[in-house]
């Protein structure tokens, strides 16, 4: 079994982004506004991680922290203003949002040219059409992790567990796209899938993204399969100072004995998501320098 070291690869990619930005003759820097609504502790951890990565890459980041009680129309107004602000290359709206805000409306209020998460319907539509602009950071990071570790996807059976906008849906599209990191035969499963283990047991590649701690067990996996664990779940652990520890959607200890490659949690997919946000933000900057404000 080989560990897919997302932490090390993310550092390499972030160095590549930093070197590219440092080489810009104009001295101009990409910029991103990180919008957080409310105080969800997990979201705060992610936003801090994103801001730190920006600093390391030479991307200017502005963290906008809004009250959890903000009115929907106020948030939409802020997102529209940022979309029209030519000093902002990219906008990241950290999800989930408080329940009184319509998430789809908020995502649609972001200019698609600044939507570095790739969640806007226009960017999703471009991915479906096979001509992507921004691909959601987690699936993009997983593709990069597979490709740069020399793991073939063409002609392989891939099973994606989960159908979220953030991971499952774009992941299935990426794996089935033509070209590098694609050309797989993809099955998308969800919580209503009967005989789920029959699907996973036939899979050469399993991507687990349904948010259920240690759901994928060794009995569900084929010998030699590639297992990608997107889950980040807090479980109680009295032996830790914090009282909890992080586990994935995969029972790492058992599944790692059967898998050919597996991602650890933490240190697998998580750092790759952040690295791809840096890649997408650099792309947003480059695109807008060439075609200023066409869509904003
Ligand atoms: N919440 C969980 N994952 C993500 C992500 O990739 N982007 C944003 N904006 N919110 C998230």
Question: Could you name the key traits of this structure?
Answer:
296 residues; alpha/beta; Rossmann fold; 2 domains; 6-stranded parallel beta sheet; 3-stranded parallel beta sheet; 10 helices; 11 strands; 39% helix; globular; binds guanine
Report on this structure.
The chain is α/β, with parallel strands linked by helices and about 300 residues long. It has two domains: about 25-115, 3-Layer(aba) Sandwich (Rossmann fold); about 135-270, 3-Layer(aba) Sandwich (Rossmann fold). The protein has ten helices and eleven strands. The protein has a six-stranded parallel β-sheet, with helices on both faces. A three-stranded parallel β-sheet has the order 3-2-4, with helices on both faces. β2, α2 and β3 form a beta-alpha-beta unit. The longest helix is centred in the last third of the chain and has 22 residues, at about 270-290. The mean pLDDT is about 95. The chain binds guanine. The site of guanine has 9 residues, from β4 and α6.
């Amino acid at each position: 079994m080989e560990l897919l070291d997302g932490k090390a690869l993310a550092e390499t990619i972030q160095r590549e982004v930093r070197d590219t930005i440092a080489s810009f003759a104009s001295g101009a820097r990409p910029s991103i506004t990180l919008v957080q609504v409310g105080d969800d502790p997990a979201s705060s951890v992610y936003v801090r991680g994103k801001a730190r990565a920006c600093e390391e890459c030479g991307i200017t980041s502005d963290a906008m922290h809004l009250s959890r009680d903000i009115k929907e129309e106020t948030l939409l107004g802020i997102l529209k203003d940022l979309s029209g602000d030519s000093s902002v290359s990219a906008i990241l709206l950290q999800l989930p949002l408080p329940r009184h805000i319509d998430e789809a409306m908020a995502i649609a209020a972001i200019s698609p040219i600044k939507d570095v998460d790739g969640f806007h319907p226009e960017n999703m539509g471009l991915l479906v059409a096979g001509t992507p602009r921004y691909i959601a950071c987690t699936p993009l990071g997983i593709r990069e992790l597979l490709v740069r570790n020399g793991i073939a996807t063409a002609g392989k059976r891939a099973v994606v567990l989960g159908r979220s906008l953030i991971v499952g849906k774009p992941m299935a599209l990426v794996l089935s796209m033509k070209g590098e990191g694609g050309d797989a035969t993809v099955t998308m499963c969800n919580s209503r899938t009967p005989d789920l283990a029959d699907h996973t047991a036939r899979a050469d590649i399993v991507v687990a993204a349904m948010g259920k701690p240690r759901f994928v067990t060794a009995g569900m996996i084929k010998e030699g399969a590639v297992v990608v664990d997107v889950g980040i779940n807090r479980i109680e652990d009295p032996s830790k100072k914090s009282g909890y520890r992080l586990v994935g959607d995969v029972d790492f200890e058992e599944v790692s004995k059967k898998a050919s490659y597996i991602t650890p949690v933490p240190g697998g997919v998580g750092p790759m998501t952040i690295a791809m946000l840096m890649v997408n933000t650099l792309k947003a900057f480059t695109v807008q320098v060439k075609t200023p404000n066409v869509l904003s």
